[in-house]
Amino acid sequence: MAESIRKLLAPGSLYATGVDTLDLRVGGNHGFSPRISEYLNNKAYIRRDLVPIVLSTPRMFTLMSDPKGWIEVLKAYVELHCHKIEGYNAKLTVQVAEQQIREEMQQDPTKVIRERSLPVLHSIEKEGNPIQKLHEFWITNGIMDPDTQKIRASNLENAPEDWLADWYSMSLLLFEPDVNFRYVRRAFVTVNMYPLDTGDILGSKDPNGEKDLLDLAIPYSGITTSNEGTRVFAQSVLDELNAENVIPYNEKFFMDGIDENVKGGESGYQAGVNKANENLLDPSEVSGL
Description:
Blueprint: E1 8-9, E2 21-22, E3 51-56, H1 67-81, E4 82-86, E5 92-101, E6 104-114, E7 120-124, H2 130-143, E8 170-177, E9 184-195, E10 215-225, H3 228-241, H4 269-278
Antiparallel strand pairs: 1-2, 3-8, 4-7, 5-6, 7-10, 8-9, 9-10
């Protein structure tokens, strides 16, 4: 059997970076006739979920009585509780100046801009409203109190002289891994990142109405960059994670047996087995034994 044609570009050649990249010169099916023998190079790109990694947290947490606790809470919220993160975009747009030539238009490039990323973090609020309380605390202590229009944390005894952005903002890395979770396809890094609201905090009475989950969609400020430098940086982070041999399917189950309050008794499947065992015929009475 003839071997199927595959051609990958080496990293650093043409448009290839550190991830497997198909060579466009192979696999094109929209010419004179389809190139079925080159189907391997026609594999489509399927965008994979970004992996968020908190790089730094607001320094104001270090002023609190339990700084480690606050840092871990914010890290867990971003990395584990957000079921959707959106608003990241690195699209490039060429702006042009135009001059008319009869019915046509000549366009000359004037500027290239990268799309602004507008992060939005989605999460399902938990019992006790821990996510909204985290953001209320973050905003009122680090940014501004709505009643006084002053920064609460700046009044603490150990507060610094300045209150620059590192005191109330975090930095976040998000990277898209390849299908084997070995290489980074693209990465974003956002600094000066802080919440712009807490999500609606509502109250109402409707005994006959349906009760819904509170799905928070919290917008964040931030300055985002996405280039080869961020990708290489993300690759170093992914190399440290190294999850190639971690298989959740093989993880030990968290329970070690039947609860003692449930085990035994006169009902249930085991009781039926015991009852049948107690009423077995004597082997001498069973034909063929």
